[in-house]
Amino acid sequence: MQNCLHLLTAPVLNMTLGVSPVALSVLVFLERSWDAFIDPVVGSYSDNFRSRWGRRRPLMLVAAPLMVLFFVGIWFFPPGASTTYLFGHVLVATLLFYTAYAFYCMPLAGLALEATDDYHERTRLVSFIFIFGFVVNLAVPWLFPATQLSIFPDAMTGLRWVTGIIGAFFLATALLAVWLCRERLYARVAARQATLSLWKSIQLARTVPNFPALVFARFFYTFGYNVVGIMALYMNTYYVFGGDVKASSIAFGFLGGTYHVAGILVSVFIFGPLARRVGKLRVFQLSTLVLVVGCLSKIVLYRPGEPWWQFIVLGANGVATAGMNLSSYSMLGDIADNDELINGARREAMLGAIVAWIEKAGRSMGILLSGFILVWIGFDAKLGAQSQATLELMKYSYVILPMLGALVALFLTRKISLSEAGAYATTATLAERRAKL
Questions:
Q1: Domains along the chain?
Q2: Running DSSP on this structure, what letter comes out for residue 142?
Q3: Cα–Cα dist 31/93, whole Å
Q4: Can you give the three-state secondary structure of the chain, one letter per residue?
Q5: What pLDDT digit, counting tens, does each position of 104-156 carry?
Q6: What does pTM read for this prediction?
Q7: By three-state DSSP, how is residue 96 classified?
Q8: CA spacing 20 to 30 A to 370: which of 230, 290, 343, 400?
Q9: Residue 101 — pLDDT band, cuts 50, 70, 90?
């Protein structure tokens, strides 16, 4: 659902309704900053929550319908509204959405991290989660083109129908997770542990081996990627299609599908098996190198009037993102065991929330800068076709900045030391400790 919001914001508010890139960047920065801020608060609350149904599922049950309601409400603004009104309406509705989203996703992340204590099964579980996410997200690049269909009297009517349909779908799947998931260690461990304040929980997280290095590696990867992440859409629309929004949106639907198909294929056939052979850390490092190569390929693969070369670029992005997410979240499960070993508490939601917080902080800062970069290079959506100087600056920004973020992330992973033998030793020690409770 978050990806739906992300991919609809720019084409709807900037390309269709004329909100300036700077205002759009500020809007998204404020949204994502709140999203980042609320995650640790909700993660800590979920870890400390106690009920007969556990720490996670009651929160998810309440949050799911609110999350969908606020998502659909984002797009119900009055016809002909001013850009100032649009800014305020979307900001308030989105802040409410991200609050409900945190109360659903942080408990869900905690359930996923504790679902198994097996080193390799964690990788298989995360692979399944991300494969399902990629499959669902195959439809996301088509949401904006769907709003342009001739069956709707206008684009805004199409937007509301489309978002209403996907809202109903997400409500059904969100409630399905509440029904099917169980909290494995609640009665034996979590229900007996003392509650921790938010600040104390954050302080303890700094003491968990490998956790700070993983967190900051993800920050720089995400920051570099999101400084110019929106430019995939702008490069396709203005560099390749010369400002033809309708034609470019159809092509981008296919291109976005390439990103997700590539993520599915490598998660199933490459990165999962590779992690079992060479380790999760090596998969993370390989993924960052794939992103670097993909960035360099943009120099020759973006060509005016030749849209299908972008398949290679967005495919490389999908491969890199899948490998980075799969390996880092699988490692996070091992780190959560180390946290219990050292600090004596299961805090999966808080650890997941800190990772989400730092990643979203990187994303927010990147998105904030992206609008200023577009203005600096001379971009103006009202012109349609952009000047050659603007297009070239757009292209090289799209090459350099994500590549630098990936290289910094690669450097930081040198400080991570996680192994299969160490993970199984930790699991055995924890099993002995729990047996004595």
A1: 2-435 (1.20.1250.20)
A2: G
A3: 10
A4: CHHHHHHHHHHHHHHHCCCCHHHHHHHHHHHHHHHHHHHHHHHHHHHHCCCCCCCCHHHHHHHHHHHHHHHHHCCCCCCCCCHHHHHHHHHHHHHHHHHHHHHHHHHHHHHHHCCCCCHHHHHHHHHHHHHHHHHHHCCHHHHHHHHCCCCCCCHHHHHHHHHHHHHHHHHHHHHHHHHHCCCCCCCCCHHHCCCCCHHHHHHHHCCCCCHHHHHHHHHHHHHHHHHCCCHHHHHHHHHHCCCCHHHHHHHHHHHHHHHHHHHHHHHHHHHHHHHHHHCHHHHHHHHHHHHHHHHHHHHHHCECCEHHHHHHHHHHHHHHHHHHHHHHHHHHHHHHHHHHHHHCCCCHHHHHHHHHHHHHHHHHHHHHHHHHHHHHCCCCHHHCCCCHHHHHHHHHHHHHHHHHHHHHHHHHHHHCCCCHHHHHHHHHHHHHHHHCC
A5: 988 988 888 887 878 888 888 877 777 777 677 777 777 877 887 778 888 78
A6: 0.72
A7: helix
A8: 290
A9: very high
Cα–Cα distances in Å, from 177 out to 164, 172, 173, 221, 360? Answer: 20, 9, 6, 30, 24
Q: Residues in the chain, how many?
A: 437
> How far is 169 from 183, CA to CA, in rounded Å?
25
Is 352 within 8 Å of 28 (Cβ atoms)?
no
Single-letter residue type at 257? G
Cβ pair 74, 384 in contact under 8 A: no
